[in-house]
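[audit] Reproducing an earlier prediction to check determinism. Same input, same settings, fresh worker. If the tokens differ from the archived copy the diff job will pick it up downstream; this log only records the rerun itself.
[audit] input (221 residues):
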Amino acid sequence: MAHDDQDRVTALAGIYQAVACVMRIARTGSADTAAMEPCIYSLFQIDAADTAAVYGPPGAMANGARQLVAQLTGRPERDLELTRYAASVIRLERKLSAQPELLGRIGEVIEGAAVLHERCPLLDPDLLARFADLYSETLSHLKPRILVRGASNHLQNPDNQVRIRALLLAAIRSARLWRQLGGSRWQILLGHKQLLMQARRYLDQASHRQPADCGPPADTD
């Protein structure tokens, strides 16, 4: 597919949105289901028409774009842990790209999960469990391992463990898309001005298409 700077920022926002969901679950035990859904949705999009379609409806990555703007500007505040997770995801995806057998296994399981998704919603526990098991079976064995920090009572909850692993798999999917679109570590380190401009452009477009997107996130326990 053809791509530009906006496409790369959309994929980068996908990383930030998924890891922000991980952090929220780890810290509070609650999930922003509205932000989670497009992350999980992206796992099924193998032959999407364009980058935006990977995540579903217009503005689906608005949460991630807001996280990216905050990291670049410090407003309302930076969260260094969020940056650490995003960097770890990008590094881990590069390790995965050199493992064709693991890539093949991931593709097989996602194809099977797509059949299950035909009769159940995106955040169905059985569907998330398949993705969580896939993450444990494949990516958790690569280094650097992503160590999730948070409240122990939330991290020890089996449902939260499943959601976190499924979201980390989705973050890796966005990192893979980011790299396929020409994204690089140097763009993150040196291209702050361009990234910020494109992230704000994405949010501006999202606000015109879906005004309700800026409302409070949905919670589930």
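[audit] rerun output stored. Observation attached for the diff report: The radius of gyration is 16 Å.
[audit] end
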